[in-house]
């Protein structure tokens, strides 16, 4: 089996394209094996190759969380999908039996696992997952578009809808437009009637965000985001901030946040340690929230939005699987707008 792997967490130089891996076996009667057609990169993949605290890999470790493909085989108890069905994968897998899973809060499961981080990933010709974690996707949605949305979109949905409870009266600031989570958050917040402003250091990314529905934009290289938001809102600030960057944007996110504002964060791509003045927090009665991945119901909601055409993840670039290291370099550069996608199907190797 062809796959993109690492044998140690040693950065991009440790990424290896392999052609000699065994095809994974069905390990349970409720499992399915998916023949992967396309997969996409997330910042999580960069964290994995560079080493996540507490994460353990077994060499050769298959990378990747997102994928689209067809069901190749099913376990004896699987009824809702059959071989040949075209599906996307929910990359976050709970145990299904704990109190959190029983309550539909799968990301809180103490045994919650993400493909590519805790379980072998999707950058391979085949991947085995529980049948409960695949959803059919129509042929009208291309492989590239289908592979691009799962992890980022379900993460954004939980942030915007379940955690921040964005509604039509809200003014929402999305930090760092161009990342997949931010692009999904922009579209989801707009679909709920909110007014959405975005930030970036790239004028071209800001222009493309306006095409996707952003009402206003701020270049954080040339403007102080907090001060600019205060000036444009008559000192009121925004109702909601969506932040996935962490350290570099945290102060400006708080500076932009109005009274009774809600800030929700899902990542720390620029660093995990931040400072918060608790006096400002309690005086302004802020709500500061964390958010991770999404539940099975939230994934269903996202798939429905994609099928209905209300959520479309921009695809930045497409690479063959054996050029995976170049794909990682594109993501690491930060120049991408949307998702970097890998073509996994056999015959798509680079010349």
CATH architecture group name of the largest domain: Alpha-Beta Complex
| CATH topology term of the largest domain | Quinone Oxidoreductase, Chain A, domain 1
Low-confidence stretches are none
Strand percentage lies at: 25-35%
User: Largest sheet, described in full?
Assistant: 7 strands, mixed
SSE string: EEEHEEEEHEEEHHEHEHEHEHEHEHEHE
Structural class: alpha/beta
Domain unit count: 2
Overall average pLDDT? 95
- Would you identify the CATH H-level superfamily of the largest domain? Medium-chain alcohol dehydrogenases, catalytic domain
Distance between the termini: 19 Å
Our Rg estimate from Cα atoms comes to 20 Å
Shape: globular
What's the structural blueprint in terms of helices and strands?
Layout: E1 3-6, E2 16-18, E3 31-40, H1 43-50, E4 61-62, E5 66-74, E6 86-89, E7 92-93, H2 99-102, E8 113-114, E9 126-130, E10 134-136, H3 143-148, H4 150-163, E11 171-174, H5 180-191, E12 195-200, H6 203-211, E13 216-219, H7 225-232, E14 238-243, H8 247-256, E15 257-265, H9 278-284, E16 287-290, H10 296-308, E17 315-320, H11 324-333, E18 339-343
Parallel strand pairs: 11-12, 11-14, 12-13, 14-15, 15-16, 17-18
Antiparallel strand pairs: 1-2, 1-4, 3-5, 3-9, 3-18, 5-6, 6-10, 7-8
Helix pairs in contact: 4-5, 4-10, 7-8
């Amino acid at each position: 089996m062809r796959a993109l792997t690492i044998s140690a967490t040693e950065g991009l130089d440790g990424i290896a394209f392999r052609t000699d891996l065994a095809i994974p076996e069905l390990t349970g009667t409720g499992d399915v094996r998916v023949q992967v057609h396309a997969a996409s990169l997330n910042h999580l993949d960069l964290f994995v190759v560079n080493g996540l605290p507490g994460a353990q890999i077994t060499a050769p470790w298959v990378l990747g969380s997102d994928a689209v493909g067809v069901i190749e085989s099913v376990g004896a108890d699987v009824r809702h999908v059959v071989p040949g069905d075209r599906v996307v994968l929910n990359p976050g897998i709970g145990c299904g039996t704990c109190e959190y899973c029983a309550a539909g809060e799968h990301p809180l499961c103490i045994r919650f696992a993400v493909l590519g981080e805790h379980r072998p990933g999707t950058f391979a010709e085949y991947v085995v997952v529980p049948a409960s974690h695949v959803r059919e996707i129509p042929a009208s949605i291309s492989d590239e578009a289908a592979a691009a949305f799962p992890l980022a979109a379900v993460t954004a949905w939980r942030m915007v809808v379940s955690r921040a409870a964005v509604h039509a009266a809200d003014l929402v600031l999305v930090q760092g437009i161009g990342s997949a989570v931010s692009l999904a958050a922009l579209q989801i917040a707009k679909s709920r009637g909110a007014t959405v402003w975005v930030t970036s250091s790239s004028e071209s990314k800001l222009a493309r965000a306006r095409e996707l529905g952003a009402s206003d934009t701020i270049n954080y290289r040339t403007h102080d985001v907090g001060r600019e938001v205060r000036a444009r809102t008559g000192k009121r600030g925004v109702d909601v901030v969506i932040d996935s960057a962490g350290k570099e944007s945290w102060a400006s996110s708080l500076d932009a946040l109005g009274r009774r504002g809600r800030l929700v964060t899902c990542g720390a791509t620029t660093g995990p340690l931040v400072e918060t003045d608790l006096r400002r927090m309690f005086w302004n009665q802020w709500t500061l929230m964390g958010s991770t991945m999404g539940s099975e119901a939230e994934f269903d909601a996202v798939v429905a939005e994609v099928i209905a055409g209300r959520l479309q993840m921009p695809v930045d670039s497409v690479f063959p699987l054996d050029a995976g290291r170049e794909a990682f370099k594109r993501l690491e550069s930060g120049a991408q707008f949307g998702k970097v996608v890998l073509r996994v199907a056999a015959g798509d190797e680079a010349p």
